[in-house]
Amino acid sequence: MLKNLSIKNYALIDELEIQFGTGLNIITGETGAGKSIIIDALSLILGERATTDEVRSGAQKAVVEGIFTISGNRKVKRLLDAADIENGDEIIVRREVSQKGQSRAFVNDTPIPIAQLKELGDHLVDLHGQHEHQSLLRPETHIDLLDDFGGLDILIRNFKTAYHDLNTELTELKDLISKRDALKEKRELYAFQIKEIDEVNPQTGEVDKLESELKILENSEKLYEVATKLYEILYDSDSSIHDQLVVVRNQLEDLSGIDKAFDPLKLESESAKAIVDEITRFVQSYSSKIDFNPERLEEIRDRLGVLSMFRKKYGGSLEAAIEYREKIGKEFELAENFDEAIHKLALNVDSVRAKLSEIGERLSSKRREVAERVTRSIAGILAEIGIENAKFDIDIRNKVYEGDAAELKSLVKLGKDFYETSDKGFDFVEFFISTNVGEEPRPLAKVASGGEISRIMLAMKTILAKSDRLPLLVFDEIDTGISGRIGAKVGRSLKNLSGFHQIIAITHLPQIAGMADTHFRVEKEVKGKRAVTRVAHLSEDERILEVARLLSGDDVTQSSISGAKELIGLK
Predict the structure, then answer these.
(1) 271: which residues sit within 8 A by CB, 6+ positions away?
(2) What residues are paired with 29 via a beta bridge?
(3) Which three-class secondary structure state does DSSP give residue 398?
């Protein structure tokens, strides 16, 4: 519901504020006074295109602001939550258009892209008349309106779930087929690489071990020479360290017999001799094991050369090569079993598609039943509001898929044929209408007359009122080309519809104006040598005079006042 609309520096409007009520809000006024300008300003905060021509001459920018109540409007709340905009029961939507052509939009003072504003507006207001913001003229909305009228929510949810499941299975199947095809091209390469890696048979840490062994073999002569020399120094010479330590130990034993202060030193000398003996044994053992093996030396050098090239080819290290071998080994093994895996997954796809097709067929059948009821009802209402020869059809088509590889698409299958499908089903719904005898129905979007469009919309909204969740409907010039008698019927239809929606309607007919719950008069006056638009919220007496003026013109008579009271429902 739109509670308040504030407009500043927009076209003929310098500044005005309108507080709308629930039910039926009627706007009247002389031609050219600016009634449609108010609707144009409203369309700005619904995301419609803005131009610099809309900025009042001499002003820096035009500002339009609307306060909407959104309690119960789950779609709007979801959009606001997704945009991270705080919201409660009300939101403030503001649009600013500068003289330089810059346009900005805000919701609760949070900047919002115009595309998002338009999406938000689509769930706040349905505007009918000489404007683009007409949901019923967009064929893609027809299927939703039909489903809402038929109360097909459960079937739709079930279909969407199955449709999502089919997409998931198809994605997995297509990925597996793609991987199989890619692996088929690589199988020969993988087979060669597996054979090459297995023949080399790299081991973790092998390079470090070989390089350590190589270093020893390359220095075996030096190792033997130094080890032998050490053995002589330590043990196998006339003045060896071992013999000298024996002499030291014996002398310290003699001294210790005289002075116990030498006891610790005697023990230290024994420890030193034990260490020298241990080193001697190790050196002697080591030198005896030194291997002068040129064949092994050459073998290690060759192996390291192979591993060096191998590392460069397979990731820079033996560990990387080993990991790569494990990876391609698994993929190669998978390639051997692809056909079985694909067959199993294809069976899953068939099963999910069968479920989707069964739900889709039931959904399509229900839609056709609902379409028959809606068609009969709307034709009757159109006759009541002055389009007596109208023929209204709801076209439900199913499109056979003509492309390749249908089994890999998100399609419904009935019999041998696949059908193009969305998450709403495999039906394509569009409203058709003919308003003249002898004419075949044409797509609703191609109906040219603005007055007829508004009345068609009114008829459809009357039928769909309980199911359509848009809180505000705006009808601009709904009475174009209709008589007072038909106007009375249109007024009653608007009044009935206002029990389900807030309605704002511009009219010149007293029969419609008399139905108002809230009545506004738009006037144009000269202020400071400039024309400005003013809006007045009429009291009961003012309403009577305004409806009387619509009945008799500027010369209001007692008879027209009586007629106005009768139209308003006053005694």
Answers:
(1) none
(2) 522
(3) coil
CA angle 478, 479, 484 (to 5 degrees): 150
Task: Classify residue 422 by its DSSP letter.
Answer: B
CB 262 within 8 A of CB 255: yes
Residue from 150, 176, 165 nearest 357 by CA: 165
Main-chain phi, psi angles of 339, to 5 degrees: -60, -40
- First-last CA distance in the chain: 31
3.60.21.10, 3.40.50.2300, 3.30.390.50, 3.40.50.300: CATH of 1-124+470-537:
3.40.50.300
Q: Per the structure block, which two tokens stand in for 259? A: 């002075």
- Cα 80–chain centre separation: 14
Q: Rounded CA gap, 520 and 4, in Å?
A: 13
Average pLDDT, integer, range 199-207: 84
Q: How far apart are CA 478 and CA 481, in angstroms?
A: 9
Q: Where are the domains of the chain?
A: 1-124+470-537, 184-336, 539-571
* Amino acid, single-letter form, for residue 366: K
Per residue in 271-291, pLDDT (tens digit) is 998 999 899 999 888 888 787
Q: Is 529 left (phi over 0), alpha (psi -120 to 50) or beta?
A: left
The per-residue pLDDT for range 443-501, each reduced to its tens digit, is 887 764 556 776 777 787 777 765 656 688 888 767 776 777 878 888 888 898 888 88
Amino acid 548: pLDDT: 94
Compute the distance between CA of residue 430 and CA of residue 393 in angstroms, rounded to an integer.
Answer: 9
